[in-house]
Amino acid sequence: MTAVWVLARARLRARWRALLGLTLLVGVASGAVMVAAIGARRTATAYPRLLEATSAEDVRLRAGGWVQDHPGFYGELLILPQVSDMGLASFALLAPDMGPGPRVFSISQNIVSAMSVDGRFGWTVNRPLILAGRRPDPDRADEVALSEALARSWGVRPGDTVRLRALTEQQIGPFEGGELVVPAGPRFTLRVVAIQRLPDDVFVTSQLAGEGFMLLTPAFYRANMERIANYPAEVSVRLRRGQADVEAFTAAVQRLSGNSTLVGLISREGLATNVEQATQAESVALGLFAVLAALAALVMIGQTLARELFLASTDDVTLRALGMSDARRFAAMTLPVGLVAVVGGLAGVGLAIVASPLTPIGLARRAEPTPGPVVHLAGLGIGLAATMVLVGGLAAVSAWRLARARPEATSATGRAGASSGLVGRAARAGLSPSSLAGLRMALEQRRGPTTVPVRTTLVGITAGIVALAAALTFTASLDHLLRTPSLYGWNFDAVTGKWDLRDALSREPPALTSNPNVGEFSAVRFQQIQLDGTAIYSAAIDTTHGQVFPSMVEGREPRGPTEVALGTRTLRQLGLRLGQTVELKDGRPATMRIVGRSAALAGETLTAAATGGILTLEGLRRLDPDPDAGYGVFYVRYAPGADRAVALRSLQRPAGGAGAEQDVQVPWPPTDVQNLGRVGGLPGVLAGLLGLLAASALAHLLVTSIRQRRRDLAVLKTLGFVRSQVSAAVAWQATTVAVVALAVGMPLGVALGRWTWSLLVDRIGLGAEPVIPGPALLVGVVGTVLLANLVAAWPGRVAARTRPAVTLRSE
Question: Smallest Cα–Cα separation from 192: which of 168, 159, 234?
Fold first, then answer.
């Protein structure tokens, strides 16, 4: 083995610069893959880990005014066998009182101010993670903890003070009626002692989720509950077996409350559905990024390894003649590359640790309970082992082939492959000698010492083109969806007002009926109902003043009391289809036929896509004639030709600005679509990485081609080629490789982008067709050809300086 070690050390000394470059390439590539793979895992598990770290509630219970007549209800809940812990919180109506002017308070412009009633909410149940500062003292009424979103919005940190002002009890009615209310209650100056993170912080992603969350102490609640507007306490319950106990707990609550409709339950599973769907999509995107990046890196590293080992085998004829066996020559070639695999893998581990704060991504970043650098031992160990095995395996295959090759196979000049048919046709077409030489160098692999990695380079560059075309197609489709509200259900221009079934005049508000900017509107009643035993949100549409419905993906809107349209995901969840009849119930049952499939959520918050049901008002009254149930607003469509900005102002300030300013919601993507937008940047990042690797592969091909075919270039110059013609031949070589990759990769990339888009959009129940971005693809084609020629510039100059006499004499 002494000879093996001597030869390996000699090759390390002779090729240390090339081996160092190869080590860096392995380290960067493996580190990027590890970051993406571990990040995918962190992204998928971020929200469940946050729930565990914060002792989050499993069920939220709202008892409203019912509990005032049943004061022992909370005590009976606490001793239920399913209950592990519970805490009470009341929510105050507070607005910031900072800045030059008063802050308004509305449904879409508010902060969620949780006051701990019993000292357990915020301390043992829904216990926030403290990111900076300390927990508030429960006995101090002037201390407050803010969510990250609020702290960032207000520009404060622990130790700073914030000024707040409360709504009065008399302002609750106008606020709930959609007015933008200026608080008129008591003022408070509170000291920020903590920046915190709670599971509910993750929901601050839409207009109706508020600006952020604050936690006020039990002392604040005791001192101010009678002075400020607030809602009855809600109960946050932790169950012993988590979601497995929800059904039994629900039955127990119904028994204790006598099935009162004033007592309602919301499970954490229902609240978390959108977050988990989003983080899963982000996790899948990162995982796909890791896989494709790994494949592209293997192609690039495989090429570089093959060339490095080929150069290391040039003295094999001499070593064979001296009697060294194939196995020992194989060992001498692989030892330096094995060192590259180990050191490169360790460098990748270090890079993955340093870059770990970049993950999770998207919505999961809000949920990550341990932001910052992370050492994921299992993931790093698997990544290191995979790097050493794959890089070592690639090196072993190439080295074994070279070690077992016949002497004449490695020393012979090599026979040029048969001329490509394309080259022959180009010659008959009368193309210039430079172009013919470039075509031949691009398309002929050859064998022996003059071989160049044509096929593997084409594969690598084609992978980059596929990623580019797929990213452009996906991004164009996403932009089209975000710019077209009707695709995600907003088949109207605004949502405003409050509709009270007890008040006949509220169905015809003057702000809409006498507004020349309003073309038509429909009154909409939101209410929870039962569909085949499953609770869903429903929207009952009154079409007295217009047929304004959410967008339909398939079928049509309901037109009578016996028809219903359901969201795509609701249909899938219940295994239903258009044309079937279903039983709906809310007080009394009724049978209805499914006539349409909707893209929008039938719920007042419009935060999820393609769920719930849409009825006519008559259909809802068949189920529940109670005028106090539910909540009503108006879907508004502007008049044809109306200026949208003017129309919006006319809704916000009805009666020429004499009345109270109204809260108006304009089209904005539901949470599912926003989540899709958060992963929309990953395809571009992947395309950029693969494009960089493709450019590196092309540069490697050109440099290798020039070095391996020095004799051919010298012959061309001997035959009369001038420097510009030699450079042009290299440029033609690069252009040919790029065009072939484009011809294969562009159609595949567009198909991949369309398939990926359709798959993701179908999962959230929308009917948005993929878009083919013709201009962007054309720019991509031109840019690829230009980049190929830019990459070829320096190798072309090197080739042009070839000295025929010196080269041919050395050959």
Answer: 159
Q: Which of 398, 116, 295 is nearest to 689 (CA)?
A: 295
Residue with tokens 């309901």: 558
Residue in 363, 762, 764, 477 with CA at minimum distance from that of residue 601: 764
Q: Which amino acid is at 193?
A: V
Cβ neighbors of 114 (< 8 A, separation 6 or more) are 89, 90, 91, 121, 122, 213, 214, 215, 216
State both tokens at 788. 């190929």
DSSP state at residue 80: S
Q: Are 583 and 647 in contact (CB under 8 A)?
A: no
- For 588, the 3-state DSSP assignment is coil
Helix (H) or strand (E) holding 408: helix 407-411
pLDDT of 555-580, one tens digit each?
999 999 999 999 888 888 888 999 99
pLDDT per residue over 57-89, tens digit each?
999 888 877 787 888 888 899 999 999 999 999
User: What six digits make up the tokens of 624?
Assistant: 């529940």
Please tell me the predicted confidence (pLDDT) of residue 407.
53
What's this model's pTM, rounded to 2 decimal places?
0.73
pLDDT tens string 447-459 = 555 556 677 677 7
Rounded to an integer, what distance in angstroms lies between the CA atom of residue 347 and that of residue 325? 34
* Beta strands, E only, 581-676: 581-585, 589-598, 613-616, 631-638, 664-665
Tell me: the pLDDT tens digits for 726-753? 888 888 888 888 888 899 999 999 999 8
Look-up of token digits 């508010």: 110
pLDDT per residue over 671-693, tens digit each? Answer: 777 767 766 666 777 677 767 76
Residues ≥6 apart with Cβ < 8 Å to 322? none
Q: Tell me if 521 sits within 8 A of 545, measured CB to CB.
A: yes
Helices (H), 551-709: 568-574, 617-623, 644-652, 671-678, 681-708
